Structures
1.
Amino acid sequence: MEGKEVELRTHLHIRETAHTLYGFATDAERDLFLLLIERVSGIGPSIGMSVLSGMPVEHFKACVVNGDAAALSQIKGLGKKTAERIILELKDKVGVAEAWQAAAGDATPSASIDAESALIGLGYKQADAKKAVAAVAKLKAAATTEDLVRDALRMLNS
């Protein structure tokens, strides 16, 4: 696609010895990457990128929701114990699995689910994220995920 404009989402990972810039095609990919490196012990950027290149985001979410460590351990660089730790820590620490299950049941519009997941990935409690996104969605019925996240962040930080 030479000559075409593309939009990338990025994350600058800073360590004492290196500054590394990671690029993502979608917000969902970046949010999953951040969730993995920030919320799962023992997962760094290289394994986070392996997860993203090993399976689509939606399939990963389904594996976590269903506790399918065998499918996750098929990803290059992910052993069975690491896959089990990902499932355990994402379900227990962050409560992400419940939001993903709701998305699978189409109980809430996709933009709201994505916004909730993004806020959870940023470290907000699931209940707070759900409440803020619902309040914003009530005011702006046709809001995009980005609008919901931005306005919910303003609400949470005010």
Note: The longest strand covers residues 9-14.
2.
Amino acid sequence: MSLLKTKHDIIAYTVDKTSNSSLYISIQNGEVIVKAPWYYTQKQIQTVVEEKKNWILKHLKEYIEAETIRKQKINTEPVLVFGKSYDVIVKYANTKNPTLNLLERYIEIILPAKYIDLNKTKIIQATLSKMYTSIAKNEIETIMEDARHLLGFAPEDFQIKSLTNCLAKCVNQIITIDPAIMQYSHEMIRFIIIHEFCHLKYKNHTKGFYELMEKYIFDYEKIAKQVEKLKF
């Protein structure tokens, strides 16, 4: 084991002498491995490691972060947002209420420290439900407005609330959308909302209904296959 001491950091690394003609540095399970030609001196290796110190520190940090996420994530099915899969990690802090942060690679839920001994499954599900509702308020309103301009007509009103056994419905000129729809891709969400718009003109799935759908949905057949198992 060798050490590189810099002003602010110490990098420990293992040297593996090989018959290759070039030096190669990799991060394996959080350890810095240097594969160097057999004729390289320790000073030459140290020089290359120092030149690559920023790259090494960056990848060591990424490894530590990934390990932290792996150890903290809960054993649930991955959570989907706009078709992208996220792991869920739970942290505890001195807060009054649960909070949620949708980050680039995972969903962070921060629970009050007093909850640490409680069964957190229901709390987490309720927090995720609030997340979907919050996202849906902006997303659905935007799609509704676009659909109104595109089709030239609109429902008397629309609402966002949990539904039983379906993601969306159109009843008495009012469209209702379940916030859980935010699990799916933007294309699928738009497809479902325009589907409900078409029910404003056609109550049933008639030929005219499908002609209207195909007129305003780009790549209709492809997206229809993606949503065919969903209920709306």
Note: DSSP finds six helices and eleven strands in the chain.
3.
Amino acid sequence: MINLVKVNPDDEEVLHNIIQLYIYEFTRFNKQISLEADGKYKPFDLEKYWKGGGYHAFFIKINEELAGFAFMEEGHKGSPHVIEEFFVLRKFNGKGVGTIASQKLFSMFPGKWQIFQIENNYPAQAFWRKTIKEYTSNTFTERYDEFRRSIQEFDTATLPNN
């Protein structure tokens, strides 16, 4: 069973460990990322996820096995929810783990959503288009911003089964 489990500050070290894998995978799309002198990638600042304020960090788990993570920011005052970072370990790619986890996240936070992918991350673009198309019954829009990022937008309130 695929679950989203809220990350607690006590789990920060585990989260930092899996983020190293995420950054490593991401270097395929951003060649400017490089290792620090200690042989690790620069750690993410996770402080905002521990303070509340609409920021959430989740582990993606299959039963008890760690399979990835999701960071999101809740929308407020009419702004949409945003997935800030999303990662599924390569061994789970193509098995529906990311699709189920992301759709659970959409259901946990009803309302407007925006999902961004950088210009040359074609695997992520394909994943999000397919996942959002399935979740929304193809009632989403897609556009590109000034940074050439692909952006999918939808509102759970307007979905056919709501």
Note: Residues 12-26 form the longest helix (15 residues).
